[in-house]
Specification:
Elements lengths: L1 H8 L4 H16 L4 E10 L5 E5 L2 E5 L7 E9 L3 E11 L25 H18 L23 E7 L6 H4 L9 E6 L2 E7 L10 H14 L14 E8 L5 E7 L4 H14 L5 E6 L13 E5 L3 E5 L2 E5 L9 H15 L6 E5 L5 H6 L5 E6 L2 H13 L5 E5 L2 H12 L4 E4 L8 H7 L6 E6 L2 H11 L3 E9 L9 E8 L7
Parallel strand pairs: 3-5, 10-11, 15-16, 15-18, 16-17, 18-19
Antiparallel strand pairs: 1-2, 1-4, 2-3, 4-5, 6-7, 6-9, 7-8, 9-10, 11-12, 13-14, 19-21, 20-21
Helix pairs in contact: 1-2, 3-12, 10-11
Amino acid sequence: MVYLRARIQRNESTSFKLIILSFIMGKSRRKTIIHEKLVITDIASEGKAIARLDDLVVFVTNCIPGDVVDVRIQKKQKNFQEGIPTRFHQLSPLRTDAFCSHFGTCGGCKWQSLPYSKQLEFKQKQVADQFARIGHLQFPEIEQILPSEKTIHYRNKLEFTFSNLRWLTAEEINLDEPYGREALGFHVPRMFDRIVDIDTCYLQKEPSNELRLFIKRRAQELNIAFYNQRTHEGEIRNLIVRTSTTNQLMLIVVFAAIDDTKREALLSSIHTHYPDITSLNYVINTKRNDSIHDLDVVNYAGMPYILEQMEEREFRIGPKSFYQTNSEQAYELYKKVRDFAGLTGQEVLFDLYAGTGTIGLFLADRAKVVVGIEYVPEAIEDAKINAELNQIEHAHFYAGDIKDLLTPIMTQHGKPDVVVVDPPRAGLHKDVAETLLTTDAKTLVYVSCNPATQARDLEILCQNYRIEKVQPVDMFPHTHHVENIVLLKKMDTFEKP
């Protein structure tokens, strides 16, 4: 509200002032509910904190257990409410100092205020709670969560946004002197058109910060207009930085409509100052969304890909390729998948939601046949390239809808002995889950980045399978996200419920 009132006082159009004033007046007429001195007792899914008011559950953002806060309610339901803290009466003894100056404004790394050991504890508890509450599952004691060796500089990919609508701090709003409005950074939570200008980000190793700051400064020197996400005007939109454990670096600069001379000047400057960039690319995006998956990527300098390595396997990563964002922890994840799969070299292995084939190819030397299915054709092309790169001839990859392809592929290659599934956050389509029940695979290994949808899917799969092991893995320190691996074994007829 302070921000909106401050904008009214500045040189905004009359129509804008009327819109904002009506918004403020409308908000003021609504009945504001504030619960005072609620004690935060637990952490829920999606990183929200929990407080209780008699029989009512109140979900609160940006709090941790032990905080005592006043909460302004933003959403009311019959059995619960959601709100934000407006005043802290007491800070939790669990709290620790955040290491990033952008903490609380930037939408990432929201658990910096929790010691890492506590983050792991809450993530493990989240898996158990969702399996019991959502899936109503019977499961053995959950294995101790695998921590990430790195808690900073662990990401291999970051995407930054150029904007001429930089998010202003409260201090800046109250200043009279002019301030720059251009930003290169991350979106403010729940605000598509406001960007936090990032000075130092601790998620990716150098030269990520150095590169970003250089490119921002050089774009300003060249008078390249930063993009406006609301009006869709401007000349430069996004910057994607990808790194690898092989110390290779990929840069993708995404322009809107821009003069060729300006574009060449910026790219030439980057190449001159950073000649060791492995892969320098650009994209022209004149759409109204930031996705580049349907656009051409132009390789300006270097190779059109970088290489990642895991044991003796090499994986070629193009500008649009998917690869697990925490490379080192992905290796620990895949090793655990390999243990759970229990391959002896004689099995037919199906890798569903195969992406670029990394899991299937990582396990290939222990399987007789590997079959990967993925609905994104470009990813399957990457998988085929990676199979050829690693001289793996017994791996076969298919693009299409899994529920449609699974039965005909089983006719061609035989029914799988082991199936690994690693779906997106939405989990398995119900038809895919039910089709899996027909495969007669003795072993299923379900890898998930969302234990809630995983629990839902397991309720279907447990018609024919029993849960043998549950292994959480922390891929993203300082966030609420948790990866989870479940080993399922086919039940005999007399075991089925």
